[in-house]
Structures are given as structure tokens and as C-alpha cells.
User: Fold these one by one.
Assistant:
Number 1:
Amino acid sequence: MPFSLWLSLAAVCAMGAMSPGPSLALVLRHTLGGGRLVGVTAALCHAGGVGLYALLTVLGLGALIVQWPALFQLITWVGAAYLAWLGIKALRAGSAGAMQQQAMVTSGARAAREGVLVALGNPKLILFFVALLSQFVTPDMSLVAKALIVVTAMVIDGGWYVLVAVALSHSSVLPWLQRRAHWINRVTGVLLLALALRVVAGPLV
């Protein structure tokens, strides 16, 4: 995979990870309730679930491209519609509810379990990855290239939420984010709509 193409992949993965939602709420909850280490545990386990979905999506897209190109195109458009819906939802949102302070009594084991369950219990991730990865997967893609896509998605997701857990363990960060939540939503919404249009336009490879 050319480095410039990988940079595009990394940028889109980062945008998906940074979108306010249940994953952010999960890391926030466990960080506030159990401290930095518990929040990091939740972040890493969530990344593991994301990596599994990314792997299944990459393998499935490869088969669809070869055997059922029309079905692949249909699923890609459904994924693009989902991205557009996320973008509109973000634009219409006010302050991000996921950034509201929610402490809880928690532990490392609970954070690990819920981190995986939040990722695997969100089948919309499949639609997100279909729309995202359809831009980068080709029928002749090597196993190394597919592995690079999966690792990129997993590392960026884990890295972002570990950063969130570390940052939120400092009490001054959360109020700063809460005051700017509407701008975060607006930027995220515009980027998601742009990505949806890019998916409809065709693959990058």
C-alpha cells in the first residue's frame, strides 16, 4: 500500500474514532470511576473488538468484490448512507452527551469486559468499516496489506481512547471539552458527510 494511501486510511480511521458516541462515553465513565489505568484498560479492549470487526470486514469485502460485485456496491452505498446519517446527527447535536460527567464504581475486569462488548455489541461498526474499507480493499490485495489495514484501525482506535483516558484523568480537561462539544460535533459532522460523498464517488485505490 502506498504511503499516501495509508495516510488517507489513517486519517479516516482517526475521524471515526474521534466521533462522540458510546465508545467515548464508555472510556469517560471508567476513567472517572476507576482512574487512568481502568480507563486505559477499557480503551485497549474496545480496540480489540474494533480490530475483530475490521478483520471480518476486510475478509468479507475481498470475497464480495470477487464473487458479487453488485452486492458489494449495494452494501457500500448502504455504508455511505449510514455515514451521512451520522454526519447529519452530529451537525444537529448540541453539546455532546457522551462528554457529560458520569462517574461509576468500576474495576479493570469490568472495564475490559464492557470495552469488548461495546465494540462487538455495535453492529453499526460493520457498516462504518464497509464504507471506510471499501475505499482501500482490492481483489488482489495481499494478506500483509489486509493485516496493515486491520492493525491501523485497531491501533488508531486504541491510541485515541488511551489518550482520552490519560487526558481525562486530569480534572481540567473534561470541562474544556464540554465547553467546546458543539464545535467538535460540527467538525465531525462535516467530515462524515464529506466521507460519505467520497464513498459514493468511488474507491481511492
Note: The CA atoms of residues 87 and 190 lie 6 Å apart.
Number 2:
Amino acid sequence: MTQPRVFGEGPLAPATRTGRVPRPRLLDLFSCAGGAAMGYHRAGFAVDGCDIADRPNYPFPYHHGDALTYLADLIASGEIRRYSAVHASPPCQHGCALTVGTNASQGWGRAHVDLVAPTRDLLDATGLPYMIEQPNGRAVIRKDLTLCGEMFGLGVIRHRNFELGGWTAPRPAHVPHRGRVRGYRHGRFYDGPYVAAYGNGGGKPSVPELQTAMGITWTDVREELTEAIPPAYTEFIGRAYLAATGTLGAAA
């Protein structure tokens, strides 16, 4: 009898002695502290990360180096075929709403490099399904999915857009927000059911509040928390991918 095979676990991924199929493997580029990675792990993937910064809090194996160089090397060597899918969160400062809105109008900030297009070019070259994540703003991606913390009962809004390459997923309806994001706006304090997962001051949440609101417990570094994707987002995407590709049995 032919053994079940899951692409992403080497030449052949046989069922284990318990009859459970090994998890498909996902590459997490620009991985930061692992918000996206944890969601994919909970959905049923084995995850490897890559980030140019040292990320000791990343909860899975990762490569410390430039994500695009690393991806190009994996493609050239053929090692990319160990993976079943790739997630990428290229730096978003070039096109995010804050950079092109408030900061630009006030002459604040600095020039930022747009890595979305070169990331997509390399992802297309892998021949694998992929996900590109970006916040609201002017980043040029196809918004196949737009997710919000209220969809998952989180204490943040944190809208994020996802371009899906080589596969499709149902688009969930956007859930109306229950109120405002807590904090100061133009010198006035507003209360609300959500915390602001960015910056410092201005009524911003404490680190424990951020951890609770985002659903992230393995790092207490504010910068990592404010840059992260809530794991609930990518758990939703990961489960949709496994359903779409018929590999639901991979979840361990």
C-alpha cells in the first residue's frame, strides 16, 4: 500500500507508527518574534523562521540573516522544496498608514525601502503557495484577505491584509468594532475595549496588557509585541490552507 505523503517534509513523509502524518513545513520570512509562526504552528504546520535581527524569543527554529538572500539561496540549492508554503511579512514602514499619513504631513520619519515587490518576485520563483502580509496603507499587494482582531475576540483592532499566491481562501466578513482604541488623540483621552499596539506614551498599554490583547505570551519585548501579527490571524489562514489543499490530517 502506498504510504501517505505530505509535501514539505522531505522526499517522503510516511505516516508515523501512531498513524499520524507529519506536519507540512512552512517558511516564515521576516519572522520577527513569531506571532505569525505561532498561528501556523497551532493550525498544524512545522515552522522555520528567518529574520535579519537576532530573535532569541522566536519559539521555533530560525535562520539569523537577510530574508531575501536566504530565500534566494534556498531556491538556488533546491532546499526550498522542503517547504509546502511560505509566509512573508516584509518591512511595512514604506507604505503603512502612519508613514504616508501623519508622519509625512509633519515631515517626520525617514525614507524606507519597499521590499514587497522583490519579495513577491522570489516567492513566485519558488513555485510554492505563499502569503504576503501588510498593514493598511499604500503597500501594493492584492488584498485577498483582510483580518481584524475583533473577528477573533482580541483586544486589538490591528487590521492586516494578506495576498495569497497560488491558492485562495474564503473572505470572512468584517465584524463591526465595539468602540474606540484606548488612548490619547490630539490631547484628549478616549477609553475603549481595544489597546493601541504601537509606539509608547499617549495612554499606550503596558506589556502585560499587550500580551493579553494580542494573544502572545512568549516575548515581553514591547517592540516585538508591537510589530507582531496576532497568532489568531495566521491560525485562521493556516487552517484555511490545510483545508484547501486537503492536508487536514497533518495537524498534530
Note: Helices lie at 35-43, 67-77, 97-106, 116-126, 207-214, 222-227, 231-244.
Number 3:
Amino acid sequence: MSIRLYVGNLPKEEIDRQELQAVFAEAGSNISTKVIKDRKTGKCRGFGFVTVQNDEQADEIIGKFNGFVFKDSALKIEKALPRTKGQSDEDAAPQQQPTVSSTPRPNTNNAGGGSGEGKRKNKKSRRPSGGGNTQTYSSNNDAVQPDPRWASALEELKQRLAAQTTNP
């Protein structure tokens, strides 16, 4: 099973697939690369993908080339997120997970006034919906779970709050 790796922080100048392939050539010959380019200008959009044969080879490349300086840019390499349905390679860059907001945001894209349904009526937004990094939580088990990176800090805050409410 092949593994796709996201290669970020590529320089915006002209880069072709062979140049990126040459960077990863020492990791093995069965590696394929793809540089994502802007459709209009043909310049690199700042990221690409490397496909390898297995997890061991992927981990080796991440360990060896993450931070590697390529044309004055330190590469960022990580396992690529799986594609979502209807998403092309150019849109497949790792995106932040959508956040859950407790209140809907008003549409602020009404440059021409009116109902805001002008040119963008049927187009999907590439941005995740929601108003930032806010998440709502409730006490039932079906609620959205907190981000595991902040779980220990959240637990500490809960304990402090409980201590404040029990001490008059």
C-alpha cells in the first residue's frame, strides 16, 4: 500500500517534479513526486506530494528530510491527510480540522449588498466553516471532544474551577 507524504514550504519560484525527485533520490528509486502549481501562472503553490511504498519508508523520509533546506526553504514533511470526496490534488493540502462554533456567523462577503447570493451562489468555500478555534462542549457522551493537545490544561482548569466553587 502506498503512502502519500505532504511536502510543504516549497519555494514559490519555478520548480519541476524532477528537482523535487532529485532531493528524495537517495531514499530510494521507487518514489514518485508531484509539485502542485498554480493553474494560471504555472508557479509552485508552495507544496507538493511524495508517494512511497510503505510506512517504514515514509517514516524514514519524514525523519531524514523534515527541515531539509531546499532552495533556501526548510521543507515541512508529514503524512498527507486522505482526500475528501470531490477534492482534486491542488486542493488536497492538509487543512486544519473544522471547528465547531456555537453561534452562526453572518455572511460578510456582501460587497455589492443585497442577499449575498451573487456570483458565489453555488460554489463551495474552501475554508472550514466556523468562527475560529472555538468549540462547544456539553455533558453528554455524543459531544465534540476537546483537542487532545489541550486535554491536560483543560483538566487543570476544571479542577481549579471545582476548587473555587467548593471554597466560599
Note: DSSP finds three helices and six strands in the chain.
